[in-house]
Each structure stands twice: as C-alpha cells, then as structure tokens.
Write a structure and sequence with these properties.
The complex is a heterodimer of chains A (300) and B (229). Chain A is 66% helix and 8% strand. Chain A has helices at 2-14, 16-47, 79-91, 103-113, 143-150, 161-204, 206-215, 219-254, 268-297; strands spanning 56-60, 95-101, 131-136, 155-160. A four-stranded antiparallel β-sheet of chain A has the order 2-3-1-4. Chain B has helices at residues 42-49, 75-79, 97-106, 112-125, 141-153, 171-186, 198-204; strands at 2-9, 19-26, 31-35, 57-62, 65-66, 82-86, 159-163, 190-194, 207-212, 215-220. Classes of the chains: A alpha+beta (300), B alpha/beta (229).
C-alpha cells in the first residue's frame, strides 16, 4: 500500500502537465454532462405526473374562484353540468380515455409535488378544482373537443399541457442532448489522454515494470499506482465539475425562481442526482481506459 | 522439478519452430547447462519455464504445475518460485545495491522486517556485504551481476534460471559468478544456465543439454561443451 501511494504521488508529479490536462478535460466535460442531467430532470419536473398520460385538462368551476369560463360567480359546477361535460367528453370519437380528479385529489397531488417547498402553504383545498383529464387518440386533434367544451356551462378553463410545454421542451431537449453529446466527445478525449499517459509511463518505467513482472509482483500491485493516478485525476475533475454545476443551478435557477411562479424547478435534490451521476461517470471513465491500456502495455 | 513433454513453440508469423518436440526432465537440485548457438532456442526454453508465453503444443511442468494451463492470475505465484538472471543485469540505476535486491521482496509484499534481515544475508552470500550503499554505475560488471544474482535468489526460489549470465564478463570474473551459481545450486536450488562459455562448461562437468535449431541434439550427464555423445 505504501508503495502504491508513493508511486501514485510520483506518477502524478512526473506527469503533472498531462495530469492537469486530464483534470481540465474531465472538469469541462463532466460539467456539460451534469448540465445535461439537470436539463433532463427539469423536463421531468415540468412534465409532472400527467404529461405523458393526457393532453387536455378540463377545469370545472369552483365556488372560491370568481373568474373566467362559463361559471356562475361563487358557484361550484352542478352535478348536472358535470354529467353533461362527462358525456360530451366520452362521446367524442377523438377521446381515448378520461380521468376524473376531485379537488381533494388535486390538493393531495399538489401537496405531494411541493412537499419541500413553501408553495405548499399558498393554496387551500377550496382553491383546487375538480377536473377531467383527457387522453386523445391523436394528440394533434384537440381543436374539436376544445371548442365543444369551451361553450359548456360549468367549465372554467381548458388547458392543453402539450401546447404549453412542448416549445419549452424543444429547448430543454436541445440543451440536454447538446451538452451530453459534447460531453461524450470530451470524455472520449479524456479517456484517450489517460490511455496515452499510461503508455508513456510504461515506457519510462519499463525496466522497473519488467523486473516486477519477473519476480512475480501481482497484476494489481503493478497496475495499482496507475489506477489510483487516473482515479485521482478523474475525481478532482468531478469535484470541480460538481462545484461548477452546483454554482450554476444556484446562480441561474434557484436565485431567479421564487416560490410563487407555480412551476417546479430543479433544486438541491436534483443537483445531488446530477453530482452522483458525474462522479460515477468520472470513476468509470478513469478506470476503464486505465485497465484497458494497462492490460495492453503491462501484460504479464 | 521441470519437465518438458513434446513441447513445440512457433512464434507468430514464423513457420520454423523455435523449439520442436522437446522432451527434457530436470530433477530437483540439478545443475544443467543449456548450450547451443544463437537462435537455437535456449532463451525460448527459459521463457516457457517463466510462462512469458505458452508453448504452441505440449506440456511443461514446473514443480508439479502444468504451466501452459496456468491461468494468468496465477503467473505471479509461479514466478515467485523462479529466480532469473540475464546477460544484461537489469538493475535499477537510481537505486542502491541494497534497494535493488530489496525491490524484489517489496514488490511481492514482504514485510520490511524480513527485508532488513534477508537482504544483508543474501548480499553477504554473493560477496557484496561491503557495497550495499553503492549504485550500479559505481560497480564493475561482475559486481553488478552479483547484485542481479542476489536479487534473483533473495526470495530463495526453487529454480534459478541464468541466461548467459557471464556473456558480458571477462573470464576471470565469470569464474566468480560460476562459483556463486554452484554454491546456490548446492543449497538444493535447481539451476539452469544457458551459456556460450565452453571453458566453463568443460570445467564444471555438469549435465549438458545442447540445442540446435530448436531440437535437443545432446543430453549428457557430466558433459563437456563440444563433444557429441
């Protein structure tokens, strides 16, 4: 163990330039990768529970809400209105499925979603709305149903989640895949740097390694210092990248998004997941090229 | 201790066998000279014992184990039972005599207390007790080869392989190395020595195995360099 540590240290110092290059490449590429992970999670937060299941949400009138739609001010939608709306939805040939959600259920879902946020105290159960969530046979064919329902009494508002979110997702998706693609290119570069470093090291230490093999040093003993060396470089890169991503999330998102805008934004839990992913990738991408090139150049 | 059964070795991309149908058995504690011209297969034979590669066909047993069938992770254990001395000494230039010998024990994880005890004993055996702090470039060729022998022997291997250990040394120095190998052999260590040095072979009167183009052309107890049986 003492040997492994001292050899690792001298290896890091000997190859200081290339070690720094590996660290910097890892830093930038893992930061991009982390940004991609954050973007992916942001998409999921925006999507919420319903995005992939339905297209249209029909909010019904509720006593607490005075505004909009075809509501009698201060009145809940009546049972008769509900029945008519439900029948209209069910009889529409474009509809594949319909789910009914009571305001109690809606409130529970709201509490679950914002359980860690001050937003959860901002609404009461009376401000929630009973609603129908509708899945269409063809998501593009929403106009007929929407115009039909817009005229019905008891309907407060009709919302098409996909129309609101899809333009946002286009940008977030581009961000997500763009950063991940760039990071893959750079991570590949880092892996090649590590491979080359080891190849050079096996030449400069060729005689020593030859003797080690000859007297029966174990593979792990010979490879250990190389492995630790790349692992340290990879992890330093991961720590720097984590710092960058954490700062980015705080600076760009958390600082600018208040409790009141009603959207779910990424926060520390999602950042934690991204950091975990970055560290994992750093470990994998420093160990695998090391083992591959070590097996190639340090063959027994 | 070492047994070759119908061993052939053909190097990649070559048609001629470096070794062809070799059958040799070397007993525990024996001293064997391997003689033959360059390219006769002496080094290939030693590399096969060390399992630097597998034979193309045949079986090789080293202290009872089938070396050809040995999985890669067990090769280090095999090599700990074999000491190897080569023509070019292969010392580490930055390390002292003591450190060079100790290195062989360090890298197989021996404790420091043992190293501090065994290395001086071994250096005493090879006659370098007074030069432990020197570096290889401060030593003569013969002394450097003694360091290499000490390193090969410090773990008390069952087998010592020497590939032309006197090839770079003058005759007088060579005699010293020869005596050293003889002394090691008398401590029950099997010694296999490849050499061109006919005077040495004639003088020692040990078993001689002669190779020519990969074939054993002579295997003679108490032989001399040139004579055919």
């Amino acid at each position: 163990m003492r040997h492994a540590l001292s050899e690792t240290w001298s290896g890091l110092v000997r190859n200081l330039g290339i070690t720094l290059a590996v660290i910097m490449t890892m830093w930038v590429s893992l930061s991009l990768f982390g940004a991609g992970l954050i973007a992916a999670q942001q998409v999921n937060l925006f999507k919420g529970e319903w995005y992939d299941k339905i297209e249209i949400t029909v909010y019904l009138c509720t006593a607490k809400l005075q505004t909009g739609g075809n509501c009698e001010p201060g009145q809940d939608a009546t049972d008769e209105q509900r029945a008519q709306i439900f029948t209209a939805i069910q009889n529409n040939p474009e509809v594949e499925a319909v789910y009914y959600q009571t305001k109690e259920q809606a409130y529970q879902e709201f509490l679950d979603v914002f359980k860690d946020s001050p937003i959860k105290d901002s609404l009461s159960i009376e401000e929630m709305q009973d609603n129908y969530r509708v899945k269409l046979v063809d998501p593009q064919e929403y106009a007929g149903l929407v115009s039909q329902l817009q005229l019905m009494r008891g309907v407060q508002k009709i919302q098409d989640l996909h129309q609101i979110l899809d333009p946002v997702f286009k940008w977030l998706g581009a961000l997500q895949w763009g950063t991940i693609a760039l990071s893959v290119v750079l991570l590949l570069a880092a892996a090649l740097q590590i491979g080359t470093t080891i190849r050079m090291a096996t030449f400069t230490r060729g005689r020593e390694i030859g003797i080690m093999r000859l007297v029966g040093a174990s593979n792990f003993y010979i490879m250990g210092p190389f492995l630790l060396e790349s692992l340290i470089a990879g992890l330093v890169g991961a720590v720097l990248a984590s710092g960058t991503v954490i700062f980015g999330v705080w600076f760009i998102i958390m600082r600018n998004t208040g409790a009141g805008d009603g959207f779910r934004w990424v926060g520390w839990p999602q950042t934690g997941i991204a950091v975990g992913g970055m560290v994992l990738v750093a470990i994998i991408l420093s160990v695998i090229p090391t083992v591959i090139s070590a097996r190639r150049y340090l063959r027994v | 201790m070492i047994k070759f059964e119908e061993v052939s070795r053909i190097y990649d991309g070559q048609t001629r066998a470096a070794l062809a149908n070799i059958n040799i058995e070397i007993e525990k504690g024996e001293f064997v000279f391997l003689v033959g011209g360059s390219g006769s297969g002496k080094s290939t034979l030693m590399k096969l014992i060390l399992r630097e590669f597998r034979p193309t066909t045949g079986r090789i047993y080293v202290s009872g184990k089938d070396v050809a069938a040995l999985p890669e992770r067990k090769i280090p254990a095999l090599r700990r039972e074999i000491g190897m001395v080569s023509q070019d000494f292969r010392l580490l230039p930055g390390k002292t005599v003591f450190e060079n010998v100790a290195f062989a024990l360090q890298v197989i994880g021996k404790p420091r207390s043992l190293i501090r005890k065994v290395v001086p004993e071994t250096l005493e055996l090879v006659g370098l007790a007074d030069k432990t702090g020197r570096r290889p470039d401060e030593l003569s060729g013969g002394e450097q080869q003694r360091v290499a022998v000490a390193r090969a022997f410090v773990n008390h291997p069952k087998i010592l392989l020497a590939d032309e250990p006197t090839g770079n040394l003058d005759p007088e120095t060579s005699v010293g190395i020869m005596k050293l190998l003889d002394r090691i052999n008398r401590s029950e260590t099997t010694v296999v020595m490849a050499t061109h040095d006919w005077a040495m072979v004639d003088q020692m009167r040990k078993r001689v195995v002669e190779l020519e183009s990969g074939h054993v052309v002579r295997d003679q107890a108490r032989g001399i360099y040139g004579a055919r049986a």
